[in-house]
Write a structure and sequence with these properties.
The chain has two domains: 6-155 and 329-445, FAD/NAD(P)-binding domain, CATH 3.50.50.60; 162-324, Elongation Factor Tu (Ef-tu), domain 3, CATH 2.40.30.260. The protein is built from 13 helices and 20 strands. It has helices at 13-24, 65-75, 79-86, 99-112, 141-151, 196-208, 216-221, 231-236, 299-306, 331-334, 359-377, 390-400, 426-445; strands spanning 6-9, 29-33, 56-59, 88-89, 94-97, 116-120, 131-133, 156-162, 165-167, 177-179, 189-194, 223-224, 253-255, 269-271, 274-280, 287-290, 317-319, 322-328, 340-341, 344-349. A six-stranded mixed β-sheet has the order 6-2-1-7-20-19, with helices on one face. Helix 2 runs parallel beside helix 11 and helix 2 packs parallel to helix 13.
Length: 453
């Protein structure tokens, strides 16, 4: 009897990773992706793992929560992190990629794998057999309705937004200076400084700017995810909210003319009231992303107000900010930490659909769901990652959190088990979390077939 392929629905970060892991385990897989026959409101290309918001996967250092998850996935043979490493662009301490090259390379790599069949079609109902559901926060309406029938539960929802991207040549380099906060690592961000008068004028305009009107059902049911608030929402929360958030000036001072008498260099640097940072989008440095400037402003308002930023007065925008509704299931009621649905263990979920937040978390979900789908096909027990690993802690959290107050969760040290002793120094504490995680990863992977280790 011919073996039935495992089916992965959705070619985002989670689906791409899941399909690769299934194939690497020796199992045939069909990867379904509706683009280009049908595009979501956020996607613009037909490539797999398209990064629709930022091009950054977050902090690179392994003593940071996202960086630790990077390292776990790197050691477990993640295709997403491997390609991110290949297509990295300067971003200080962050893992940022050339999004076009990254997605195109992943698409071509999967297309060449002999065990991966790619079908460009919209899946309208959950198939039979072993299935990984990785359709993301913008699942098509028919499949969403079928998922609703299957779970008997409504989606939860929140709004997510993308930042504008500008042409590098249009940035005034006489004003914008290249630096990283506290001069850590390479100088990787363009920084547009503001004095108090400029900041207050910018803040006032943001508070009253015209937004894209939300539909009635969206206003009633959606909420903002606190880690991805629109810049205008931050402005409305208070005069200094942006200065303690994405526009914080701490650790950023631009060079100025040193005193003639050769005084201390620190006294020859100019400190600022607020700073807007731009992060490089591509390897050539032709495109730059406004960091933290997710927005739902009308496009005409975006151009008018964002060109008030010193250094961006003549900015050319290749993409303006957009905002869209994200949806996710109530994972604590529906899922095991193996990423299997309780009602149907042959159905697995991954990515933002199950309530994880961020690119790296989506890749981690794809890794575990893919590996467990393959193990089910091989008659093996599914894996549960140790909760001392960032991956394990994340999936333990989404499967056991309070269903009443559940909302998407990014990687963070707060979800890891206590170390058993108080360590006041944060850097040392995070380092201990990392060391424990990577030690337990070795135990987790021992005895399993991971040719990458």
């Amino acid at each position: 009897m011919e073996k039935q392929p495992i089916q992965v629905i959705g070619g985002g970060l989670a689906g791409t990773e899941a399909a690769w892991q299934i194939a690497q385990a020796g199992e045939p897989v069909i990867l379904h992706e509706m683009r280009p026959k049908r595009f979501s409101p956020a996607h613009h290309t037909e490539h797999f793992a398209e990064l629709v918001c930022s091009n950054s996967f977050g902090a690179m250092a392994s003593d940071r929560a996202t960086g630790l998850l990077h390292e776990e996935l790197r050691r477990l043979g993640s295709i997403v992190i491997s390609k991110a490493d290949e297509h990295v662009v300067p971003a200080g301490g962050a893992l940022a990629v050339d999004r076009g090259q990254f997605s195109q390379d992943l698409t071509e790599t999967l297309a060449r794998h002999p065990l991966i069949e790619i079908r460009r079609e919209e899946v309208r109902s959950i198939p039979e057999g072993i299935v990984v559901l990785a359709t993301g926060p913008l699942t098509g309406p028919d499949l969403a309705a079928d998922l609703h029938r299957f779970t008997g539960m409504e989606y939860l929802s929140f709004f997510d937004a993308a930042s504008p991207i500008v042409v590098g040549e249009s940035i005034n380099r006489d004003i914008a200076f290249l630096a990283s906060r506290y001069d850590k690592g390479e100088a990787a961000y363009l920084n547009c400084p503001m004095n108090k008068e400029q900041y207050l004028r910018f803040w006032e305009e943001l508070r009253v700017a015209e937004q894209v009107e939300l539909k009635d059902f969206e206003r009633e049911t959606a909420k903002f995810f606190e880690a991805c608030l629109p810049i205008e929402e931050l402005a409305r929360r208070g005069e200094d909210t942006m200065r303690y958030g994405p526009l914080k000036p701490v650790g950023l001072s631009s060079p100025s003319i040193l005193p003639a008498n050769g005084e201390d260099e620190k006294r020859g640097r100019e400190r600022h009231y607020a700073v807007v940072q731009l992060r490089q989008e591509d390897k050539a440095g032709q495109l730059w992303n406004l960091v933290g400037f997710q927005t739902n402003l009308r496009w005409s308002e975006q151009k008018r107000i964002f060109q008030m930023i010193p250094g961006l007065e003549n900015a050319e925008f290749v993409r303006l900010g957009v905002m869209h509704r994200n949806t996710f299931v109530n994972a604590p009621q529906l899922m095991f930490p193996t990423l299997q649905f309780k009602q149907r263990p042959t159905l697995l979920g991954a990515g933002q659909l199950i309530g994880t937040e961020g690119y790296t978390a989506a890749a981690a979900g794809g890794w575990l769901a893919g590996r467990n789908a393959a193990r089910l096909a091989l008659g093996q027990e599914p894996l549960t990652a140790p909760s001392t690993m960032m991956m394990g802690a994340l999936f333990e959290f989404i499967s056991s959190a309070s269903p009443k107050h559940f909302q998407p969760m990014p990687p963070n040290f707060g979800i890891l088990p206590d170390l058993g002793e108080k360590i006041k120094n944060k850097q040392e504490r995070y380092g201990r979390y990392r060391d424990r995680s990577l030690a337990d990863l070795i135990l987790f992977s021992s005895g399993l077939e991971f040719p990458h280790l």
